[in-house]
Write a structure and sequence with these properties.
By secondary structure, the protein is α+β, with helices and mostly antiparallel strands. Among the domains are: about 45 residues; about 100 residues, Enolase-like, domain 1, CATH 3.30.390.50. Helices cover about 30% and strands about 20% of the residues. The protein contains twelve helices and twelve strands. The protein has a five-stranded antiparallel beta sheet. The chain has a four-stranded antiparallel beta sheet with strand order 9-10-11-12, with helices on both faces. A hairpin with a 5-residue loop joins strand 4 and strand 5. Helix 5 runs antiparallel to helix 8 and helix 11 runs antiparallel to helix 12. The longest helix is centred in the last third of the chain and has 18 residues. It is globular and about 60 Å long. Bound molecules: flavin-adenine dinucleotide (FAD) and iron/sulfur cluster (SF4).
């Protein structure tokens, strides 16, 4: 690990002022940052501890939505009674991630910003365009069983690893950030970036901006929702494929559908094509299968991960069946 300056700030403005210094990184739970620093993948000149900021609240909004502070721990959010009741998909996604000890440390802001688990990204002996722009991608012709099948480019095929973000993508969350020029709002689907030709650019947050809150809009029918995660072992493992599903069904017909996929995309993947198929259709297996086929028609497999195309389809069909049943 490289030497760095460490400071602890007490309020948002001090955090933003500190971030004006080039080479600054915030630290919250530290569960991703410290690993990256120990492996010399990240070498910030200055680390700013933001844990004293007042960003720990989970508040119901007058419009029926909910505002979540960026420092709320993953476990506190998962077990919050309002989240369990109104947004079970979010609670289930959080509880499927990592381990209880990690969830007790991991923050909402840190989860949004966590970096890929591509093994070549973590091993500095290999070429990686995300770690060293222009150096190449060892995964494309290497061992790529866990890599992405949606949103890939010829420069990077790394998956986005978060479970929480998949639920938030389906819920259409809004990210509130604060910078030297004031407050800014980023719709969830604009926060994470596709790799394209610049895989080292992963999100639309600026260096001097702090995530302060995430807002979840009011979705009365989100009480009927589910997160399904398929992985090599049933705990302490990242997704091979996952699906977050919210369905509004009246008289056997789907009125509204929100769908997102995890473990398969280079960013939390809002499954717009599946939503189009589902909306207005009868809630049955044929509809669910057609929706899965539509979304995965965009997928491209690589040497070791082509199996994920069918796995993702089956994961989505099962998540839809559990959530919506059969008419
Ligand atoms: C062994 C292991 C297994 C895991 N398994 C899973 C899993 O199955 N599913 C899953 O979803 N996740 C998993 N994770 C990842 C875990 O969820 C993340 O490490 C965690 O959410 C990061 O949160 P943190 O508060 O510790 O972030 P930190 O490590 O403190 O920070 C991470 C990044 O976020 C930035 N940051 C933090 N807060 C803010 C803010 N408010 N504004 C701007 N930037 C900010 C930091 O600068 C840093 O770049 C696993 C992690 C480990 C170590
Ligand atoms: S897939 Fe992306 S993160 Fe993995 S080696 Fe290639 S460029 Fe690096």
């Amino acid at each position: 690990m490289e030497p760095f300056k460490f400071i602890r700030v007490q309020d948002d403005q001090s955090a933003i002022r500190a971030a004006l210094t080039i080479g600054t990184k915030f630290i919250a739970g530290g569960t991703n940052m410290l690993d990256l620093m120990k492996l010399n993948i990240e070498a910030p000149k200055q680390v700013v501890d933001i844990n004293k900021l007042s960003l720990y609240q989970i508040e119901e909004l007058p419009n029926g939505g909910i505002r979540i502070g960026a420092l709320v721990k993953n476990s506190d959010l998962a077990y919050h009674p309002v989240i369990i009741k109104k947004y079970p998909v979010l609670s289930e996604a959080l509880l499927s991630g990592a381990s209880p000890q990690l969830r007790n440390m991991a923050s909402v802001g840190g989860n949004l910003m966590q970096r890929t688990r591509c093994p070549y990204f973590y091993n500095t002996d290999f070429a990686c365009n995300k770690r060293v722009p222009g150096s190449g991608c060892a995964a494309i012709d290497g061992y790529n069983r866990n890599n992405a099948i949606l949103g890939t480019s010829d420069k990077c095929i790394a998956t986005h690893p978060s479970d929480m973000c998949v639920a938030m993508a389906a819920l259409g969350a809004i990210i509130k950030v604060q910078g030297p020029k004031g407050l800014r709002t980023i719709p969830f689907n604009e926060f994470h970036l596709l790799p394209g030709q610049t895989p080292h650019l992963e999100h639309s947050l600026r260096q001097d901006e702090l995530i302060t809150h995430v807002e979840i809009p009011p979705i009365p029918y989100a009480t009927r929702s589910h997160y399904l995660k398929v992985r090599d072992r049933t705990s302490y493992e990242f997704a091979l494929a996952s699906a977050a599903v919210i369905l509004d069904i009246q008289n056997g017909r789907i009125q509204h559908a929100h769908v997102a996929l995890g473990g398969v995309g280079t960013k939390p993947w809002r499954a717009v094509l599946a939503e189009k198929v589902l909306t207005g259709a009868v809630a049955n297996e044929q509809t669910y299968r057609t929706a899965a086929e539509a979304t995965l028609s965009q997928a491209k497999g690589f040497k070791d991960n082509t199996f994920k195309i069918e796995l993702a389809k089956r994961t989505l069909v099962r998540a839809l069946t559990i959530t919506g049943g059969m008419s």
